[in-house]
Amino acid sequence: MYERRCENGPGGAPVIDTFVADTPPGEPAVDPAVVAQQAVAKMKLAGPEIASPRAAGTYIVGVPMWMWVHKGPTTYGPNTASATAGGVTVTATAKVTKIVWRMGDGSTVTCNGPGTRYTAFYGKQASPTCGHTYSRTSADQKGGKYPVAATATWAVDWQVNGGGGTGQFTEARQSQAQVAIGEVQVVR
Known about the structure:
6-stranded mixed β-sheet; elongated; 1 helix; mainly beta; Immunoglobulin-like; 6% helix; two-stranded antiparallel ribbon
C-alpha cells in the first residue's frame, strides 16, 4: 500500500491518492462505487461552518436574520480525493449543493448556496439569499435559546481513472448552533 498527499487541490484542498496492490487472479471485481466511498472518507467532510447566526448576542423578534456559512474544503467544498482498490482507481469530488436550516421555532429554510454575509449597509432588510425572521422570543426554550441545525447536502461526482465508469451520490452532514431571540418593548 502507498499513500500520496498533496495540498494542491481546488482552493488548496488536500488531494490524497492511495494505491493498493492489484487483486490476485480469481478474486472478485471491485465495485468502483465502493472505492468512491473510500475516497470520500478521506475527505473528512463535515457539517457547515456556521458564521451566522452567532451563539453570542441576541437577535430581535421581527428583524430579519441573515444566515451564512464559511466556505472551506471540508465544510463546503469543493474537495477532491482518490482511492485505489483491486487495481481500480477512483477520483471523487464533493461540494455542497444546499443547506437546510431547522430554526428551532418549527420553521425550515432551504438555501441553495452559502448565504450572503451581512454588513451594516443592508440595515434591516431581509437577506437576498438565506434568512429567517423569528416571530416569537426564545425565552421559553431550554437555556433561553432556540436550537438551530444546519444540514448540508454534499453532491459527490466520481469517475474511474482511465475510463470505465462514473457516478454520483449524496452525503449529508450537520452542524448545530443556538440562538437567543429577544423582544424590543417601546416605552412612552
